[in-house]
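Notes, Module 5: Reading structure tokens.

Key idea: the token line is not a picture. It is a compressed description, and you learn to read it the same way you learned to read a sequence, by spotting repeated patterns. We will look at two proteins. The first is printed below with its tokens.
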Amino acid sequence: MNTIIGVGIIILVLVIFMYRRYKMFAPALKGNHKDSEKLINLNDHNFKSQIKQGITLVDFWADWCQPCKLQGPVISELAEENSFKEVKICKFDVEKNPKASKQLGIRSIPTIIVFKNGKEIERFTGLKGKGVLQKAIKKAIG
């Protein structure tokens, strides 16, 4: 009897976890995502000048990357709701701009890096929800 209850609890926890993950990335599953106009698109030429001052969150992605397609709407939503006026929310296509991504050691995407005055202060690899990223921004602000 205890075993059945234990298995039931484990299944319930897994279902709740999967539902929360689904809700977090559901906008991307609709397939008609368009990037926010508030997102700053970075490349090898403007990367260093953009991250040099203040706090910058950069999403490193590629067009062929399926997890990146799920992360994109989260980054766009973060840019749209950006209540931190001193924070820049950016995207960086690693396929079209290999120089900066190689210098930073980006080996897996999506990778999200938070920079403060040009220095990396936090790095995330894989899908991350908006709450995790907002927490990282608040931590960077201090």
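Here is the second protein, with the sequence above and the tokens below, as before.
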Amino acid sequence: MRKYLARFILIVFITLVSLPALAQAKPAKTGGAAEDALPKPKFNISRFKGPIGKRYVLKNGMILLVKENHSLPMVTIGMIIRAGSVMEPYKKAGLAHLTAGLLTKGAAGMSAMDISGKIDFIGASLGVGGSTDYAAAHLTVLKKDLDTGFSLLSKVLIQPAFAQAEIDRMKKDIKAGILREEQSPGYVAQKAYQKMVFGGESPYGRPVEGTAASLDAITRNDIVAFHKDFYVPNNCIMAVVGDITPAEAKGLVDKYMAAWKQKKVPKPSIPAPPKTALRRKNINRDVTQATILMGHVGVARDNPDYYKLYVMNYILGGGGFVSRILNTIRDNMGLAYNAYSYFDARKYSGAYTVGMQTKNDTAVKAMTETLKIIKNMKAAPVSDKELSDAKNFIYGSFAQKMDTDSKMADLLAQVEFYGLGLNYFEVYYDGIHNVTKEDVLDVAKKYLHPDKMDIIVVGNLKAAGIK
């Protein structure tokens, strides 16, 4: 049986990998179109018509989003709490990350081991983590164990213990992680780059985990106060996806979170980033290849040009091997092992970043050629094929953003957080579909500033010929 199965798999494999070659070998029709290949994929917008979920504002101020999927007896809950590092004081950097990480380390009389044991016993998963814009909680559980799972989720969010021993242990772990990361050229480059682009006092300009010094400055009272200020229901978004109805979801919140009271939440204070200017920093490391980051302040997620920028950047450096940067720098010139670009669109303006790894002795040339590519992007329209290929890929990859209940729960919560609307799928499609070559050129001219990029190089500076 195994012999026949192996032969069948081999035949299928040979057939699949032969299809592209067969398509290319197909004789051209009269008229000479040598590109008579397979039809290009079409985006089926009918799948994504209408609202992506049901939205409710609960009595305690929490936003509840529900999407039913009764195909499996599972429920996934994704939560966003507006308690990211944008809410912490500069001198207490790492407070938001530390607070989020401690929530599952003891709550309501249970130890970290107790919580972990209860979650493992029902075969569920529960986690909480902190980032720059927000903290996120996630629960996946069988429908039959939903009460148990939701009860645990509510306890870690509302009644965390913040035991001093756990605080000390987590601080020690984070510091050890920072020391390990400092050995990575990529981490060193990213840390220096963020600080240069946004300024050291901005939450976007410092590591979300803080520093050893800032962690030492954080006390248990700081953690308790941060939790009291920001972990309140009217500061939360809960997305529930799976084998559940809106009535059941509301019932769970009423049952397990009735004592969670809303309150006024402090607003973040985000320092303005330094003005866009050509700044350079070179960091010497005894490594065989240089890590390079170049860029400047970009856009926020709610920028009206977001979809135009998405398409433009796919063509420039976000499309992997079909993007101009990687295709030219790696494939045509052999200057870099990897090269890319992206707009990190966050709640507030993130960064536009171009990155690459290259041999030390080709670092200067790789940077020079990359800047030329960016300048060319601002000089002339893209081709019809580049635009069409970008749209087709973006359409085709869209479904991957929501092919599991877990991804859908996270997506729902983010759509609410960034104010994208429950008709997000249609807006997304229209946003990509309506982009023209003129739009791509316009946003390239408006948002790309190759002459004013901050540049970080981490590498062997002597071998690179950089002073």
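Summary for the second protein:
- Confidence is low (pLDDT under 50) at residues 1-41.
- Residues 280-464 form a domain with the Cytochrome Bc1 Complex; Chain A, domain 1 fold (CATH 3.30.830.10).
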